[in-house]
Design brief:
15% strand; two-stranded antiparallel sheet; alpha+beta; three-stranded antiparallel sheet; globular
């Protein structure tokens, strides 16, 4: 949904370095940013903050409505209730989705879902916990990174395997146009 402009409580992660590099360079503008890759250990996150040695499956993520004390399914939470009334966790929670969408499969996607603390993850979890690491790509490495992506066959179309992704890829490749 984020790719279509919907605000969500989900933060996208990938199991692939190439995918992470692609997204760090997607809207890169040297005048205001550095390409950045964030590395997350989702198992450590859940182990430290949620007493679980694994990631949660969204369909098994029961939530509790604080007003009624009733347990609801994750889909009920997303579709019918106000999130602030039902979230039982404070820190972000690592989840693995069922990969029913081509984009999610090709991107090797996983998510964290914010809890009641909606600050950025780096402000919630101290670096000393060794759960995440921020890596900024030096400007001098950008050209080589783009060359790596091209040689690895990672493009807008491989990340977004639909007609919009194909159109963007072809326009950029043949006409040097970027369609967002």
């Amino acid at each position: 949904m984020q790719h279509h402009g919907v605000k969500t409580r989900l933060l996208d992660w990938s199991e692939s370095f190439g995918v992470a590099l692609y997204f760090s360079l997607l809207n890169f503008d040297a005048s205001w940013s550095s390409p950045t890759i964030w590395i997350l250990n989702p198992y450590r996150l859940n182990e430290i903050y949620h007493s679980s040695h694994d990631m949660y499956a969204p369909e098994n993520l029961d939530v509790i409505d604080s007003k009624t004390d009733q347990t609801s399914s994750y889909s009920d939470y997303l579709l019918y209730n106000r999130p602030e009334d039902m979230i039982w966790w404070k820190q972000p929670l690592a989840i693995y989705p069922i990969r029913r969408v081509d984009r999610l499969t090709t991107q090797g996607g996983y998510f964290t879902i914010q809890g009641t603390d909606v600050r950025p993850i780096e402000n919630i979890i101290p670096p000393s916990k060794k759960i995440w690491k921020k890596i900024e790509l030096p400007a001098a490495a950008v050209h080589s990174a783009l060359l790596f992506l091209e040689q690895a066959g990672i493009s807008h179309y491989t990340m977004f395997p639909d007609l919009d992704g194909l159109s963007n890829y072809l326009n950029k490749k043949y006409f040097n146009l970027k369609i967002v």
